[in-house]
Amino acid sequence: MQLQGAIEPMRAKAVDQLPEGPAGSYLYEPKWDGFRCIAMVSEDRGVHLQSRRGAHINDLFPEVAWALHEYLPAATVVDGEIVRWAPDGRLDFTALQRRNMAGRRAEDLSRTEPCHYILFDILRTRGRDVAGLPLTERRRILEKLFVAVPPASVLALSMQTADPIEAWTWFWSLHVAGVEGLVIKPAWSRYKPAARGWYKLKHRTTTLALVGGVTGTLTRPRELLLGRYDDIGRLRVTARTTRLSTPAASQLAPLLTPAGPAHPWPEQLPLGWAGGLYGQREPLIYVRVQPCVVVEVSVDVAAEHRRWRHAARFLRPQPDLMAADVPLNLDLER
C-alpha cells in the first residue's frame, strides 16, 4: 500500500450486536467520541496531523504534534482519535469544537484544555509498511512503540481486548464517561484505507421526544425534527431522525397538524440546529407542526449544545402520551 498524500482512514459499519465467531476472531476497543486523526512522522521528524477528511490540523492541536515529534520514530504513520477529557472525567466533544473554531487561540487552549491522542492502529513504522499485516501483529508493534512514551504524555494507547465478556463490561460501564460504544475488528484484518472492514456497536437508549417539524411534506414526512422543553419552558430542537420508512411515514402523517405563526422555531433552521450532511451550507427547509405528537426514539450518548449530535431512530408514535410526559432537556426520564 502506498502511503503518499492524504490517507482515508479505515471505517466501521454499524451493527446492532456483537458479530459471532470462534474465540479470538475479533478484537474489541472503546469507540472514542473525538476527532479521527491520521498522524504522519516524516523521515526528517516533521509531523503532519490529518483529519478524517484530509485537512491539516497541526495548528489546532500543537500539543499532539509536539508529543508525536518527541516520542514516535521517524517515517511512522499511526491512526487514532483526538479527545478531550473534561474535569468531571467525561469526554468533552464541545471542547474539541471550541478548539476547532479557536484560530490563533488554539495554542492557548492547548495549555488550558489539553487534548489527548488515543492511538489504535499503525500503518508504517521506521519506513516499513505494516498496513498489510494482521491487526494482531500491528497491535504488538504499536505496543512496543509505547514503551518509550511516558505515562503523563498526551499520547495514549487505546484499550483493546479479545474477550467479548470484558468488551460487554466496557460497553455498559464506559458510556457514563461519554464513550459511544465499541469498535469490533477482525483479528486478522489488514488496514485498508476507506474500506468499511470494521464494525461499530453504539450504546443507544430509548426515550421520548416531541415532533416539532418534518422534512418532506405533512402527507409524506421524510425526517422528524424533534424537540424537548427546557427548564424555563422553551421548546428546543434536540435531534433530527434518520429517514423514515414508508410504513412509519404513513403511520405518522395522520397525527401531524400544521403549526401557526406562534410556533417557537424559525421557518428555516440555522446550520447546526438539527444536523445535516457534511458540507451543507444552507439553512434547513422544513414544515413546522404543532408540537403535540409524542414519539419514542432511540438515541446514542453523544450530545453537544443540548442536542443529540447523531441522528435519532424513530421507533413508534405514542398517541396516549402528552407533552407533559416527555422528559426535559436531554434527560432520559421524566
Automatic annotation (TrEMBL):
UniProt keyword list: Ligase
Domain of life of the organism encoding this protein: Bacteria
Start and end residues of each ATP-dependent DNA ligase family profile domain: 117-202
Keyword set includes Membrane: no
Family, per entry: Belongs to the ATP-dependent DNA ligase family.
SUPFAM superfamilies for the chain: DNA ligase/mRNA capping enzyme, catalytic domain
InterPro entries: ATP-dep_DNA_ligase, DNA_ligase_ATP-dep_cent, DNA_ligase_ATP-dep_CS, NA-bd_OB-fold
Organism: Nonomuraea dietziae
A molecular-function term among this protein's GO annotations: ATP binding
BP term (GO), one: DNA recombination
Pfam families: DNA_ligase_A_M
Reaction catalyzed: ATP + (deoxyribonucleotide)n-3'-hydroxyl + 5'-phospho-(deoxyribonucleotide)m = (deoxyribonucleotide)n+m + AMP + diphosphate
UniProt keyword tRNA-binding present: no
Protein name: ATP-dependent DNA ligase
